[in-house]
Structure of Thyroid hormone responsive:
Amino acid sequence: MQSADARFKRNSLFLALRRYTSAVSEMEQTILLPSLLRDMPSDEEWDCEAAEETCKDLHGDYLMLKAIRNIVESGLIPLDDRKAKNNMALNETLTLEPLLDTDPEALFQFHVRGLFSVMSDLTKKTESLTEKYMDIIGVAN
Amino acid sequence: MQSADARFKRNSLFLALRRYTSAVSEMEQTILLPSLLRDMPSDEEWDCEAAEETCKDLHGDYLMLKAIRNIVESGLIPLDDRKAKNNMALNETLTLEPLLDTDPEALFQFHVRGLFSVMSDLTKKTESLTEKYMDIIGVAN
């Protein structure tokens, strides 16, 4: 029988954030020569055309994953946002206007779930990048 | 000159969450007879048709604000969601499919900013409800 505690842990947003920062710490400790990631093509499925700066190679992925970890740890909302252009495109795609009249409880849950989901994805990407580095330097896991 | 520390505080998501839970605590301490809020029309602008249960009167607002505070404090993602229907409608409105291929950094920032914004709105609503209760019982602020 699954305990309430186990369910709590699996579904906690705070735990998802902590899991992500731990994965990035491990990545940093493992990747001693990040420059080896340069020019290694990123096989991530996200839209690289829309985010030229960050995901053209594995080194870009590495920098992005660290940048997000810094935001998570500081808890700051990035204002001077180098991603502003992409966010504008995202906001246009999502047509945010209907949200303004939405029940705030549903809106709150939408963003909490969204954040949980994106943190889980980013944790997997971080672990995958760490493994790829191990492959590059020829160390078996 | 505005200090870096002041900017930090104003833009912190964690601070926005804490500010909200404090506002709800103060609301609970002030509203000793929540039943007085029954049948008092809610003048909130959100779409009450889409959220029949929670915002038909000020008492509904009171319960909703407390429920969200409980989720914030536990950090849990609500799975057995009485708002599931509304969230589905919200997700349909937002057409989430394009998000799947989106640069995860932009997606992360979208949800963090969204959460910050909704927490600020909910804090104002909580403070406003507390003031309305004071008016109802005839106590000047």
Remarks:
- Chain A has a mean pLDDT of 77.
- The radius of gyration of chain A is 17 Å.
- Chain A touches chain B through 55 residues (CB under 8 Å).
- The helical segments of chain A are 4-10, 13-30, 58-74, 84-94, 104-136.
